[in-house]
Specification:
It is a single chain. The protein is an all-alpha fold and 91 residues long. The chain has one domain. It is 84% helix and 0% strand. It starts with a helix and ends with a helix. InterPro entries: DUF6703.
């Protein structure tokens, strides 16, 4: 079994859980983490941006095989920018 298969298999339950939530919960949570991460300086801002980066990285990994080159580049750029903001908050 490959790593991708293992990640997809272990991600099935959390993805189903997220799908069952009301539609507004996920975008509101992502926006709140982003807002707190960019406004609050120090460890709390870094934690929020890091959690958001991990969550988006997981989602990006799951959707990677079906994306074309442009979509892949945009997602890598978005994730890199988010990680740069999180790292910049540590300094």
């Amino acid at each position: 079994m490959s790593l991708r298969d293992a990640v997809e298999r272990n991600s099935a339950t959390p993805v189903v859980f997220l799908h069952q939530l009301p539609r507004w919960v996920l975008p509101l949570t992502v926006a709140a983490l982003m807002l707190v991460g960019l406004v609050v300086r120090g460890p709390w801002g870094t934690v929020c941006l890091t959690v958001l980066a991990l969550f988006l990285g997981w989602f990006f990994y799951l959707s990677w095989p079906r994306l074309d080159l442009t979509e892949r580049l945009l997602r890598v750029a978005a994730l890199a920018l988010l990680v740069a903001f999180a790292a910049g908050d540590l300094i």
